[in-house]
Each structure stands twice: as C-alpha cells, then as structure tokens.
Amino acid sequence: MSRRGDIGAMWWIYGLLAVLSLLWLVPVATVVMSALRPLGEIRDGWWNLAGATFTIDNFLGAWNEADLGSKTVNSFIITGFSVASTISIGALASYAFVRLRFRGRGLIYFLLISTMIVPVQIILIPLLPWFRTLGFAEGSWQPFLGMVLVHSAFGLGWAVFMMGSFMAAVPTELTEAGQIDGAGHFDIFRRIILPLALPGIVSFAIIDFVFVWNDLLLGLTLLDADHAPLTVGIANLQSAHLAQQDVISAGALLAILPPLALFVALNRYYVRGLFSGGVK
C-alpha cells in the first residue's frame, strides 16, 4: 500500500474513533446536564438549552436526602482498608509465587487464580449467613472488617495475577546480586522488587479502588443503613414510585470524584504500568 493510502486509512481510523468518542460522551453529558438543571427542564429534554437554568440544589438535595456525608466516610473506610490489605497480602504472595519454590506452589496458585472467574452473585447467598455467624453483621466496626475481608478475598487473585507479572519481569540478576551482598528475601522484596514493580502495584491499586468504591451488590446485601457505602445511598434515592433523575445524577457525579482524583494523581504510574513490559 502506498504512503497516501496509509495516510487515508489513518484518517478513517481517527474519524471512526472521534465518532465513537462523541457517542461515549452522550451518557456523560446526560448525567452532567441532569445534575445541573431542574427536574422539569430535564423532562422536556436536557439538550434543549432555550431558557435553561442551572443550579446546585440537586447536589445539596442528594447530599441531604441520602446522607451522603456519612456514607462517603463509610466508602472511604471500606475501600481504603480493602485496597491496602489486598495490596499488602497480594504483593507478598506475588513475590513468593514468582521467586520462591515450595511444595504445592502450582496447585495453590491455580486455586487462587480460579477465584477470578467466580461471580459474586454465585456465593452471595451462602456468604450472607457466614457473615452473620462470624458476627460481622452487628457492631460498630465489625461490618467494616467483614467487608474488608470479603473484598480482599475477591481481589487477591487479581492482585497476584497482575503484580506477579510485574515482579517476574524484574531481572533475576538484581535479586542474585542482593543475595550475594547478604540480603534476605524481605530485604530483596522491599529494596529491589517493590521499587521496580511500583507501576504495576499502582495500576492494580487504581483498578481495585474503583472496583471496591463502585460496589453496590455486596454493600446492599451485607451491610445495614449505618454502615452502607455511598453507592447504596445513591441507589436509595430511586424507588418504584419516585424517579429523581436530577438528584441521582448529582449524587453520581459526587461519587465519581474520588476515583477521578486518584486516577489524575497517579496517572503517570498507571500509564507506565500499562506499557511496562511492552519493550524489552
């Protein structure tokens, strides 16, 4: 194919991607405009800007009606401790699977990775009585601990799968040099492996944060109203007899701010993690 043909094909691809990007932005624009305009104007069509009025009352309504303040704190507690525990345990386990040799290593790794293909809905019913029997359904901090354990269990397979691939990419010559200098496994893990695998760890942290933060099913099933996360509070704004598109859209915009801020802050590590290993 000639150079002119290559340029033409490239413009066709760029044009198609631009159209798909605009189509993807339609739901986003719907949420933003619904959150900033009164309900009566939304029902007439949010795209109708003739005589449009903009207000922040929807955000105040979402914050007060759903008690988003306390539920935001609950979400930060559940998400923060879940991500921290998953990364801590997953990083140590990844190093063990990648650098150590022990009996049953393959079988344990297979069983751990197999948790990635188990849908939450399948074990939700047997999980509920287990949650209550162990005392995680009542108390001030016990429900948070139970949710952290559940999310950590679901995320550990992904953690080992993702972080293990980054740790395996670290040259063995570096770890062997550390062993020659007298470093033990913990020193090698802390001083050599962790700094070099940091992009992969941050990439997993962002993905796991978004997954736990956006969880609705587990929070709706396992937690009471006092310990419910932000997603449950927003879901409670919608009922079979009351449709509050304006307030729900405002709550949804508030809910995406923490993951968005985290992604912006750690974007350079996330991009490095995505492309790490692409070039030898």
Class based on secondary structure composition and strand pairing: mainly alpha
CATH fold-level label of the largest domain = MetI-like fold
Largest sheet: none
* Helix and strand pattern: HHHHHHHHHHHHHH
Low-confidence stretches: none
Number of strands: 0
CATH-level-4 superfamily name of the largest domain: MetI-like
N-to-C CA distance: 29 Å
Query: What overall geometry do the principal axes of the alpha carbons give?
Result: globular
User: How many domains in all?
Assistant: 2
Q: Can you tell me the CATH class of the largest domain? A: Mainly Alpha
Q: In what range is the share of β-strand residues? A: under 5%
Cα-atom radius of gyration: 24 Å
CATH architecture annotation of the largest domain: Orthogonal Bundle
Helix content: over 70%
Annotation field: number of helices: 14
Give the overall average pLDDT: 82
Protein model, in words:
With 280 residues, this protein is mainly alpha-helical. The protein has helices spanning 3-36, 39-43, 57-65, 68-99, 105-114, 120-133, 142-168, 172-180, 185-196, 198-213, 217-222, 230-235, 245-265, 267-275. The chain has two domains: 3-55, no CATH class; 59-275, Orthogonal Bundle (MetI-like fold), CATH 1.10.3720.10. The longest helix has 34 residues, at 3-36.
